[in-house]
User: What shape does this take?
Amino acid sequence: MMIKASLLAVCTLALGATAMPFPQAGQPAICASKIEAIVPSTVSCANAQFPEECADSSRAAPAISRSFTKYGINSKGEQSALVALMLFESGNFTFNKNHFPGVPGQGTKNMQSPAFNLLYAQSVFDNHTVGYAQAQGPEAVLRLVSNDNESFGSAAWFLSSQCNQTVRDSLATGTKEGWTTFLTGCVGTTDTPERDAVWVATNAVL
Assistant: This one.
């Protein structure tokens, strides 16, 4: 609890020093120091394998916060799950596309499939912009949603548009059962010890 209180104070100071809005009442603050407490390496992209895709904690925090506000992700349980999912899927925010094995058009920090990236792009951009990118192929669509706001916003969009209320209510409890339900019942992947470790670390900080 002392760690959380200290991090909250740092977050409050950081938010007050920037133009980023304060979180709503009861909404956990997302700031660089909290992301670094979860994964210390996020402080820098100096050693990133694909530096042009990497975003450090100072870039990630405001983009994630904006996405939570935009898509109404207010509970601690939901926020922890989305941060954990993005950290795991993007190699701690160092990847913006699927390199292993390399699926064309799969990416964002949520590592969405090309089909979901197209739906996401259609929700963010006008028809002409999306249609032009779509005509060039899935990689062009991915580029549309690869800027920080769109890339980090993908997880919040996915939860708010693709997951049913039962999944969201379960996530909001902040329990392991809710996390597993989210992964298996909406994301469509298996719950593994590696994923759980990231979620536990995130849940302890946020």
Observations:
- The radius of gyration is 16 Å.
- The first helix runs from residue 2 to 16.
